[in-house]
């Protein structure tokens, strides 16, 4: 294992020849951080300092088409990240295969500021077991989701090497597919180095590429998820499926507000209703309102949802937050994911398919 990592690291940092004009980055970085105890019962297992390393490869997109995706220069690529949670008996380790996008806020001169969003799959080698590992209420499935947001300072020593310092906010959970699933939030600080191939200074793009529509937009969508039928214990998964519709109003080149409605049916709620003999419906409906960033083909939405109907004996909250990420894949078709939360407690994630009308 050590020999394989060493070989891969040497490969990423060595000189390689390519014919493409976009610059390629091959990097390695170290991580060190801490675990946030977002509920009081997590205090005993959160007093450790995770550490790890990351190897990655990415490409700096410089074409006009790529620039219009976020009205900025940016990188995108793949990474592998390993984290040791410094508590081998309870929390173990995670192995994460990820995809990331990293738009640049600044690009002139050797110092560049960027923001990276990462999504991936995490393999956890130590999970909850009622008999052998009851303390690990963070993870209950070996396969989970990995999400990260990073603020990066990149300093180009020359056209071949750059060093970077990053503040990262990392999250791992199974999206509510199995309980217990408190999920782990663990900020880290990372230091790394990149080997760069075919880099040339970035040039300012013409203002004509920054044009955007000021008219109202409308969307229709569907979403689905898998949820545990018991929120406090291990149980089988059941389908949640729903539809949504709404409007998007630009206020500037990147900011806007949105209004909408959504309706879903949750078979995990139906299972609870049948088991507890409750007088409730498994249908939920709500109206939503919020803010969104629209950057080229990307949408980042933050919404409040207000229930119109819900199974009140199961769901006591009348309001929720929804955080969504959409990406336009072809003209009006958009794919995405969203997380629904109640205060500081994340409830579940879903996948989305959206059609945007103009």
UniProtKB/TrEMBL annotation:
Pfam families: PagL. InterPro entries: Lipid-A_deacylase-rel (IPR018550). GO terms for molecular function: hydrolase activity. Keywords: Hydrolase. It comes from the Bacteria. This is Acyloxyacyl hydrolase. The lineage of its organism: Bacteria, Pseudomonadati, Bacteroidota, Flavobacteriia, Flavobacteriales.
């Amino acid at each position: 294992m050590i020999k394989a990592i060493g070989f891969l690291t040497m490969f990423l940092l060595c000189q390689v020849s390519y014919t493409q004009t976009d610059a390629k980055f091959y990097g390695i970085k170290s991580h060190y951080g801490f675990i946030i105890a977002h509920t009081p019962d997590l205090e005993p297992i959160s007093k450790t300092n995770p550490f790890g390393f990351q190897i990655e490869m990415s490409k700096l997109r410089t074409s006009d088409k790529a620039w219009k995706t976020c009205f900025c220069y940016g990188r995108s690529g793949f990474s592998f990240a390993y984290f040791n949670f410094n508590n081998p008996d309870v929390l173990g380790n995670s192995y994460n295969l990820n995809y990331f996008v990293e738009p640049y806020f600044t690009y002139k001169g050797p110092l560049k500021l960027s923001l990276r969003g990462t999504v991936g799959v995490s393999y956890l080698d130590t999970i909850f077991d009622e008999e052998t590992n009851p303390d690990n209420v963070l993870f209950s499935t070996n396969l989970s989701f990995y999400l990260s947001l990073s603020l990066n300072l990149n300093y180009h020593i020359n056209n071949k090497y750059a060093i970077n310092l990053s503040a990262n906010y990392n999250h791992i959970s199974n999206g509510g597919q199995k309980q217990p699933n408190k999920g782990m939030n663990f900020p880290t600080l990372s230091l790394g180095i990149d080997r760069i191939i075919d880099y040339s200074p970035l040039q300012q793009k013409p203002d004509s590429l920054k044009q955007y529509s000021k008219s109202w937009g409308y969307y229709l969508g569907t979403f689905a998820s898998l949820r545990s039928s018991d929120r406090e214990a291990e149980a089988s998964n059941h389908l949640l499926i729903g539809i949504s519709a709404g409007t998007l109003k630009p206020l500037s080149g990147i900011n806007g507000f949105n209004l909408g409605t959504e309706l879903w049916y949750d078979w995990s709620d139906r299972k609870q209703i049948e088991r507890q003999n409750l007088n409730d419906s498994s249908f939920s409906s709500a109206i939503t309102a919020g803010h969104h960033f629209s950057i080229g083909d990307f949408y980042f939405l933050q919404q409040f949802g207000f229930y119109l109907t819900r199974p009140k004996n199961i769901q006591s909250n009348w309001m929720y937050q929804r955080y969504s990420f959409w990406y336009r894949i072809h003209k009006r078709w958009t794919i995405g994911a969203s997380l629904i939360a109640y205060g500081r407690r994340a409830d579940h994630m879903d996948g989305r398919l959206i059609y945007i009308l103009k």
